[in-house]
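Figure 2 data, in text form.
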Amino acid sequence: MRNQKHCNFSYAGLKNQVRLAIESQKINENAPMSLASAEDRQMRADIAASFQRVAILHLEDRCRRAIDWARKIDPTVSCLVVSGGVASNNVVRTKLGAVTKEHGLQLICPPPRLCTDNGVMVAWAGIEHLRLGIFDPPPHLDEPADAWLDLRPRWQLGEIYAEGVSKARSLKSSGGIPSLTAQVQTLLRKTQ
């Protein structure tokens, strides 16, 4: 995904490369570490370290793009918030701290004990929608239990970074559900 100029993340290719590395080294991933040879343990450690390195490089790259994109919308952006399980990783915190420093931003991470559940991020996005008045009213008390709900398994928080992306990847041309950012921008335009 490195050549795709948007802010989306995907580790599918990286996971596939890890699988191929494990298969090529003939590592028995089902064998516990306590029964593995020293050579096998070293190989596992090398693959894990390589995975972390490449995963974090991808994260750094996407965060740089997201910062550039956010600053085009609002030049006063002053911080990057990292939460969820990934924010528990000290290397991620250190590397993203360097990225934010490059851009003159502050990195904000909750304490690691609060970084274990992505439900917090979903709730936060919901609060931001509610705060901006972007919500559906709650169901009536007499609404049937099997009423239709608009569920969004992939709720984008930002528009796709447009530079270098074909029209086919645009939410506007695909008819997809507008992102939180698009909804906020529309709301702000209406109030101006």
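Caption note: Confidence is low (pLDDT under 50) at residues 159-176.
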